[in-house]
Write a structure and sequence with these properties.
The complex is a heterodimer of chains A (about 525) and B (about 220). Chain A has about 525 residues and is an all-alpha fold. In chain A, about 70% of the residues lie in helices and about 0% in strands. A six-stranded mixed sheet of chain B has the order 2-3-1-4-5-6, sandwiched between helices. Classes of the chains: A mainly alpha (about 525), B alpha/beta (about 220). The interface between A and B is large, with 66 and 58 residues. Chain B: It comes from Gouania willdenowi.
Chain lengths: ~525, ~220
């Protein structure tokens, strides 16, 4: 079940991530590339629509719930009637494709209404009203919200649950009910309340599996992983970096802070990386890529997976450098360095999202939780970072922050000579080395382009003057040799030609006489 | 799905605190990998290590969290201790400064986590440098007692005292966890139902032994 997503070597251009309006905040694909603020301004009315769509989603969920329930019921009774020996094939037969459920929908209609009301007991009046409105139009697919992925995730979830038989049926029901109840009230809840709802749900479901179904703790962990994936794939869009929080403001602050700290070197942080070793710098680049990739995941566990992969690459880099297992004393400074180099998109939002919606046991005792905690530490350290944190004097620190001193670009820029520390004047980061190399190539290229432009201009001038010259020469010649001579020759030839086309001359005819 | 007889597995988080070079890494590598200063050690990292134990028939998963001990990271401590069940505080018995650091951490831990956290204070013994006075040991022991911590002397090199220390820590963490369970009532579903705002849908007649689950909302 723990089918991990393949690691893709993605390459993210930071500018692609920014809001399309150019306000400096991060944009989000879910908001058509705008930041939440601009998106809000642009699409005020969309919110109303979204609430309606949520209701449609709730309806659809309810239908699926009923259909799936009916299908499992069917499979159950089948397997009950069948001999116990043929349990396996029967269980398999219950993996009915979703399309089969479609025809059942209409039959379920009447029953659905009452069940929906039951789920919405706290606010059944408004729910019923909306239902009658929406009931007339065919409900749009959930696809509008999260697309194919979400449907695939639900399908996987159903398949997973069907193998669990009775508890699976119950888990399914609980999840549906929870999503529906939340889709109804999530617009009125703050981030912490939403988090509490989700956490309570995880807790109650896990307790129920252990207490009521006597499921072992290991299996519960597996189930809860799937539940988290299913629930959070659906909730992601509305609960990641929500409007009700200042997450986005913090993102921007962190992003600017990291930019202002671009001058921090490996030596200042005492990181045990020897980037001269190619294998080390490879791992550093991979670690940077992993931590940037975190933002693209929707499920908390998948985001944690990115942090964990990033951490493992850091460990490799330390191990290769120091030739011993990395301890926390090595790891934390290295992670801080990687975060400074990567400037991961929406770092604070991602940290908050994971904290709010991850399965708690994974954060508390799991390995992922350890790396995540270190990432929180790194973010906190960067936020508070001062001269003392880097063993610099306050004056030095100020000079770096104000851009008067530079630790990196002094070597390539002849006029910047007031580098505060000569020893780390050389760019130590392979990414920066590459950057510098690219900059050199660019400036070389632009010199050559200029030369090319000059040559082209000269060629054009040459061409013009050549045409002029030719004209002048032709005129000269025309003046010197008057026209009649050539024109005669031409007309003589023409005469011949014309004569050839004429009918043959008349030949004398001899008249018989 | 395999149902078991209800033997709950305990998962404990233990943070490892101590000044640099007092032997934290050596201690945990000895305990989890049974290695000491091994040139050929293949372990990728010694920051997060786990150990599975079986104590009086109950399974225990121990997660040991190393912490960055450098002074400039000191303020980050609370982020590391959050939700920890135990702490192992290491000092070097020949260096009373490192013991003073331990005292500071104990104060912070107690302030943040109260008596929910079980403490072990560990004096690392360097056999060739046993130039500590008996008086110092008395001070250390009585301090440990006064803050409700157990004190141990260990040697990672000789593999002495480490197993005992962790075993004792685990037993105390289990007691704490059991006491907490008793406090919350019999079984988990009770505690769950006391959490607000969530309705567990339940229309099966034989459901929820403890009852009261559906009354909310
Ligand atoms: N003789 C001896 N040396 C030890 C012991 N524990 C650690 N050391 C040494 O003390 C030094 C620092 O240990 P380390 O585990 O890296 O300390 P840390 O910085 O607290 O993680 C290393 O050179 C170890 O070999 C021990 O129990 N006995
Ligand atoms: Mg260490
Ligand atoms: Zn914007």
């Amino acid at each position: 079940m723990s089918r991990r997503t393949e690691r893709r070597g993605i390459h993210v251009d930071q500018s692609d991530l920014l809001c399309k309006k150019g306000c400096g905040y991060y944009g989000n694909a879910a908001w058509q590339g705008l930041c939440s603020k601009c998106w809000r301004e642009e699409y005020q009315q969309v919110r109303q629509k979204q609430i309606q769509d949520d209701w449609a989603l709730a309806e659809k969920l309810q239908r699926e719930e009923e259909a799936a329930y009916a299908s499992i019921q069917g499979a159950q009774s089948q397997s009950h009637s069948a001999a116990a020996t043929s349990q396996q094939p029967q269980a398999h037969a219950s993996l009915t494709p979703f399309s089969k459920f479609e025809e059942k929908k209409t039959n379920e209609k009447t029953r659905k209404v009452t069940t929906v009301k039951k789920f919405f007991s706290p606010s059944s009046r408004t729910a019923a009203k909306k239902e009658s409105q929406e009931g007339k139009t065919p409900s749009p697919s959930i696809g509008r919200d999260a697309g194919f992925d979400t449907d695939q995730v639900s399908k996987d979830f159903m398949d997973f649950l069907k193998n669990l038989q009775k508890p699976g049926r119950d888990i399914h029901k609980q999840c549906r009910a929870f999503l529906i109840s939340l889709s109804n009230k999530k617009h009125d809840l703050g981030a912490d309340e939403l988090s509490e709802c989700v956490q309570d749900f995880y807790q109650n479901l896990a307790d129920r599996l252990i207490g009521h179904f006597k499921v072992s703790s290991e299996s519960v962990e597996q189930v809860m992983d799937q539940v988290e994936k299913y629930i959070m794939t659906r909730l992601y869009k509305s609960v990641f970096c929500p409007e009700t929080t200042d997450d986005e403001k913090k993102d921007l602050a962190t992003q600017n802070r990291i930019r202002a700290l671009h001058w921090v070197t490996i030596q200042m942080l005492c990181v045990s990386f020897d980037e001269e070793i190619p294998e080390v710098s490879e791992n550093v680049v991979k670690a940077i890529t992993d931590i940037i990739e975190m933002d693209s995941k929707r499920v908390p566990r998948d985001k944690l997976g990115c942090i964990t992969r990033c951490s493992k690459h850091i460990f490799s880099a330390i191990r290769i450098t120091k030739k011993e297992p990395a301890s926390a004393d090595d790891f934390l400074p290295a992670l801080i360095y990687i975060v400074l180099k990567a400037n991961p998109p929406r770092l604070q939002s991602n940290i908050q999202y994971i904290t709010r919606f991850c399965i708690p046991s994974r954060l508390m005792t799991g390995e992922d939780g350890y790396y995540f905690t270190n990432l929180c530490c790194a973010a906190a350290f960067i936020e508070k970072l001062d001269a003392q944190s880097l063993n610099l004097s306050p004056e030095e620190f100020e000079r770096y922050m104000s851009g008067q001193a530079s630790s990196r670009f002094s070597s390539s820029n002849g006029d910047v000579t007031d580098s505060a520390s000569g020893s780390d004047a050389m760019p130590s980061n392979p990414v920066l080395v590459q950057l510098n190399r690219n900059l050199d190539m660019l400036s070389d290229l632009s010199t050559r382009q200029e030369a090319l432009n000059e040559a082209a201009a000269k060629l054009q001038a040459d061409l013009l003057s050549w045409t002029e010259n030719v004209k002048r020469e032709v005129n000269d010649i025309l003046e010197r040799y008057p026209l009649q001579v050539p024109s005669r020759t031409v007309s003589a030839i023409d005469t011949n030609n014309i004569e050839n086309n004429l009918p043959p001359p008349l030949t004398p005819e001899v008249f018989a006489g | 799905m395999a149902a078991t007889g209800g033997g709950k597995t305990y998962s404990f988080k233990v943070v490892l605190l101590g000044e640099g070079c007092v032997g934290k890494t050596s201690l945990v590598l000895r305990y989890c990998e049974n290695k000491f200063n091994d040139k050929h050690i293949t372990t990728l990292q010694a920051s997060f290590l786990t150990k599975k134990l079986n104590i009086t028939g109950r399974r225990v998963n121990l997660a040991i969290w190393d912490t960055a001990g450098q002074e400039r990271f000191h303020a980050l401590g609370p982020i590391y201790y959050r939700d920890s069940n135990g702490a192992v505080l290491v000092y070097d018995i020949t260096d009373m400064d490192s013991f003073q650091k331990v005292k500071n951490w104990v104060k912070e831990l107690r302030k943040m986590l109260g008596n929910d956290i079980c403490l072990c204070i560990v004096g690392k013994i360097l056999l060739l440098q046993t130039r500590f006075s008996g008086g110092a040991i008395v001070v250390v022991y009585s301090y440990a007692e006064s803050v409700g911590a157990k004190h141990y002397h260990t040697s990672a090199k000789l593999n002495k005292g480490i197993e005992e220390m962790f075993l004792d820590l685990c037993k105390r963490m289990m007691e704490t966890a059991q006491a907490e369970e008793r406090l919350k009532g019999n079984g988990a579903s009770q505690s769950a139902s006391s959490r607000r705002g969530v309705q567990i849908v339940d229309d099966e007649p034989q459901a929820t032994p403890t009852g009261g689950c559906c009354s909310s909302g």
